[in-house]
């Protein structure tokens, strides 16, 4: 059955079967709330699934998979957050929606947290910070834990504690046969390997268990705004500094326009700037000498860092990425940041189409590279930087301009990159090939997906980067 064939009698049969077996809401065409249920964070995405099964728990997921096996619609799986490319929602098929499954349980003695797949990083941080514990999460608190972790999961603590997927202890997953499995280093280690960086298309992951680390509730952060006319010298200095800083900080450099934040002087709102940031992953009392050089790369316009609560820090940029905005992200990995690469980057940024668009350089290495290249499906160990080209806008009339800028910038920077692409910043459906996203892991991922889903129930999800 193709995507377009789940209509009429077949659609009604699927909806009826789900309503008979799923405790959560089942929403089809014409039902109240359908447009809201199909809406995702990225306003660029406008897909119309045949049915949305809002699962209340793992048992509902099992029933949804059973119905999908019987009727064979195209299936997509939705977690709790952003998922820039919008592949959580499909046209004409079935959405297995986990966004209502947001339970979080912390075991402070074991230093672990188990969170359901609909949880966001705000949900996880709220629970873990009660005990002064943290697992590396996203940089926007409304990001969902599921897609973020399954794709690797970069964040502000990565050089100290690794990627989100590096902190996984186990997952609960419903595979295509409807079985509920726990995957860990001891049980179904092949599934566990795949879930750490290549987990799309394996089944429906219903919960994640993470290791926790001592950090918070108060941390120290450097946040320095430099004038845009210092961009090249600041970028070169930042590059040189990143080679010297310890793993307790994961520095970032952002080319952006100052957001209309009440904490920032109104005279700066909208001005193009260079932002240098870093969070100290340790005792705030020890942070000063480590973070101080980030404010010595030029003459700052202002500094907005200092001590703050970790959970508040993680929420600070949420307003800059509102629900319903239009977004398109592309990325590269770089082994080095040469002067020529910086010049090319600045040339691309000079064409930035909207104030909401930005370019981000994140520093890798440290704990990210202490995971062996074959220990997980995440294939981009060894890169020194990740470059993210993030188009953001609100007016649909700017779709072609904004997307075109991100794509042309990505093309212009290919010669400075490794050839790998971060799956969570890979553009839209099928825009980036699996070999580019998964590198040397692609072949083994195909084998594992074939073993657990021989009939291709989740084939559409597996094909989408």
UniProtKB/TrEMBL annotation:
PROSITE patterns: FAD_PCMH (PS51387), OX2_COVAL_FAD (PS00862). Residues 44-215 form the FAD-binding PCMH-type domain. It holds the Pfam family BBE. Keywords: FAD, Flavoprotein, Oxidoreductase. Its cofactor is FAD. Belongs to the oxygen-dependent FAD-linked oxidoreductase family. PANTHER family: BINDING OXIDOREDUCTASE, PUTATIVE (AFU_ORTHOLOGUE AFUA_1G17690)-RELATED (PTHR42973), FAD-BINDING PCMH-TYPE DOMAIN-CONTAINING PROTEIN (PTHR42973:SF39). This is FAD-binding oxidoreductase. It comes from Pseudonocardia zijingensis.
């Amino acid at each position: 059955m193709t995507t377009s064939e789940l209509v009429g009698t077949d659609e009604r049969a699927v909806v009826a079967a789900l309503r008979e077996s799923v405790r959560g809401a089942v929403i089809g065409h014409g039902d109240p709330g359908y447009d809201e249920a199909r809406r995702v964070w990225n306003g660029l995405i406008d897909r119309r699934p045949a049915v949305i099964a809002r699962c209340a728990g793992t048992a509902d997921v099992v029933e949804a998979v059973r119905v999908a096996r019987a009727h064979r619609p195209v299936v997509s799986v939705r977690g709790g957050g952003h998922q820039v490319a919008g592949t959580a929602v499909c046209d004409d098929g079935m959405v297995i929606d986990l966004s209502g499954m947001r339970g979080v349980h912390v075991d402070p003695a074991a230093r672990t947290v188990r969170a359901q797949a609909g949880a966001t990083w705000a949900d996880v941080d709220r629970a873990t910070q009660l005990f002064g514990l943290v697992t590396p999460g996203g940089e926007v608190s409304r990001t969902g834990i599921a897609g973020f972790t399954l794709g690797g999961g970069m964040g502000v603590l990565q050089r100290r504690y690794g990627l989100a997927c590096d902190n996984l202890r186990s997952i609960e997953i419903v595979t295509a046969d409807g079985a509920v499995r726990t995957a860990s280093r001891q049980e179904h280690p092949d599934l566990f390997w795949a879930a750490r960086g290549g987990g799309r298309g394996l089944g429906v992951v219903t919960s994640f268990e993470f290791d926790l680390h001592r950090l918070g509730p108060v941390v120290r952060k450097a946040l320095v705004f430099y004038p845009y006319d210092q961009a090249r010298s600041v970028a070169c200095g930042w590059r040189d500094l990143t080679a010297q800083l310890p793993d307790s900080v994961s520095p970032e450099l952002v080319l952006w326009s100052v957001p209309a934040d009440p904490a920032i002087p109104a005279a700066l709102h909208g001005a193009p700037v260079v932002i240098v940031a870093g969070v100290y992953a340790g005792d705030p009392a020890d942070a000063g000498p480590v973070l101080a050089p980030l404010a010595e790369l030029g003459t700052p316009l202002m500094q907005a860092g200092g001590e703050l609560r970790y959970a508040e820090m993680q929420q600070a940029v949420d307003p800059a990425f509102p629900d319903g905005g239009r977004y398109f992200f592309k990325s590269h990995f770089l082994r080095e940041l040469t002067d020529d690469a910086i010049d090319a980057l600045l040339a691309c940024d000079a064409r930035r189409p909207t104030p909401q668009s930005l370019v981000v350089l994140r520093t890798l290495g440290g704990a990210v590279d202490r995971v062996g290249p074959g220990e997980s499906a995440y294939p981009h160990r060894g890169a020194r930087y990740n470059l993210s080209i993030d188009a953001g806008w609100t007016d649909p009339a700017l779709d072609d301009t904004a997307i075109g800028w991100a794509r042309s910038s990505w093309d212009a920077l290919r010669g400075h990159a490794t050839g790998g692409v971060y799956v969570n910043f890979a553009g839209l459906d099928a825009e980036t090939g699996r070999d580019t996203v998964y590198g040397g892991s692609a072949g083994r991922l195909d084998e594992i997906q074939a073993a657990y889903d021989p009939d291709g129930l989740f084939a559409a999800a597996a094909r989408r980067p």
